[in-house]
Amino acid sequence: MLPVLLGAVVVNYLFSRAIRGGNKKKLLLVFIVCIDALMLVEFKILGQVIDNSLMPLGVSFFVFKMISFQADTYMDKITEEPPFADVAAYFCMFPQIVSGPIMRFSDYVENDHIGKDAYKAELKTILSNIEDGLRFFVIGLFMKVMIADHLSMLWNDIGTIGYESLSTPLAWIGAATYSMQLYYDFWGYSLMAAGVGVMLGFPFVVNFDQPYSAKGVSDFYRRWHATLGSWFRDYIYIPLGGSRVKAPRIILNLLIVWLITGFWHGITLNYILWGLILFVIIVSERFIVFKLLPKWLGVIVGRLHVFVLIPLTWVVFAIPGLNMLREYFCRLFPFFGEGIAVNAGDYIKKLGTYGVFLGLGLILLIPGIYGLFEKYRKKPVIMAILFVIFWICVFSLSNSAGNPFMYFKF
Questions:
Q1: What is the pLDDT of residue 137?
Q2: Residue 99 falls within a domain, yes or no?
Q3: Are residues 68 and 182 in the same domain?
Q4: Structural domain tally of the chain?
């Protein structure tokens, strides 16, 4: 699939030049965006309906970069015409090509090592960047290997038991487990990718900003996979009219964005349903919870949405079959469905096995914990801890069969 990437790079570069110097800029922009979007849709369908090997690695992320590059060129946000080498390197940047974060070209050109003075950077600066990037890489590796990968074993165990046979406590533990597994898997990847970017001299790209400290679901998704959220905002929601239009049109704009978000993750019904559920929650927050309720009550309801509704939506996200999804929700809310737990105390055994990893995940949800790492990461004691953490992760990896990043399939 390498020719797909190379062909897309060349075509997009040529169109960006035509948009910059052409008289029919808008027509050219619409045409190349449609070409890029149709390429993504085609491979999504081929990959999920026929054979997953037909979907090029990272196609979503390099297509999103290409579309944002064309739009920024059209809006004159890219002031000088960049050389082909920089455009190609930006599209194909290996730390980000598989699962993001989605760096904008304006961030890319902040690299001190780009351009005619590329080799004049001081050795001390280069080594400092490598060292700082390694810090972020190691903490991301820890989140992936020691938290997400172990929580994935608990989620797999729950699937092995059978959703219809779970006790209600274990079903709720499962919802929390998958929520944290996805969070630390993707946050870990984002930190590792951003760390490699820092090592190469690029600015650190924030992709997660403590989403579980959010005041509501809309705030949650401004903080979760922030570069994707801002991409949808800047290149879909705002061009549709954003929030500058009347309420019915705002609702329609949000519906379009969340339908596209669901489809982007996959074409199975559960992803579309997941997007629609989030759309309903966000609209209710915007026009009811934060508008009609007293402020203090709106804050409480918003927090409940984050800690109760978000894990439930991740269950919808995780389980593709509607029958299995119904069985799981019947165990979450047993008064609505039939079935009985095979072992009412099953959750006690699972907590005994995986409680440490659940505890680690819950501790890192506290915003101040990661903030301490960011603030004091250059202190010798933190460096020593990171050194130990790194080798613990290596030991754990050497004894595992390998667990790919969850967002690889999107």
A1: 96
A2: no
A3: no
A4: 2
160 shares a domain with 65: no
Q: Please say whether the beta carbons of 66 and 36 come within 8 A.
A: yes
Residues 44 and 142 both lie in one domain: no
Question: Tokens 């915003």, residue?
Answer: 367
- Mark whether 249 and 171 lie in a shared domain: yes
pLDDT (0 to 100) of residue 125: 83
4, 32, 217 from 106: Cα distances, Å = 25, 20, 29
CB atoms within 10 A of CB 161: 18
Greater confidence (115 vs 311) lies with: 311
The rounded distance, in Å, linking the Cα atoms of 171 and 188 is 25
Give the pLDDT of residue 385: 94
**Region 49-71: what's the mean pLDDT?**
87
Report the percentage of the chain scoring pLDDT > 90.
62
Kindly report the pTM of this predicted structure: 0.88
Query: 310 and 242: one domain?
Result: yes
The CA distances from residue 24 to 11, 30, 33, 81, in Å, are 17, 10, 14, 18
> What type of residue is 264?
W
Burial of 79 (C-beta count, 10 Å sphere; 0-12/13-18/19+):
exposed
Quote the CA–CA distance of 274 and 135 in Å, as a whole number.
35
**Within this chain, do residues 244 and 349 fall inside the same structural domain, yes or no?**
yes
Summarised one tens digit per residue, pLDDT across range 71-116 is 999 998 888 889 999 999 999 988 877 777 888 898 888 765 555 4
Q: What is the pLDDT of residue 409?
A: 64
Q: Is residue 394 part of a domain?
A: yes
Whole domain around residue 227: which residue ranges? Answer: 126-409
| Residues 346 and 197 placed together within one structural domain of the fold | yes
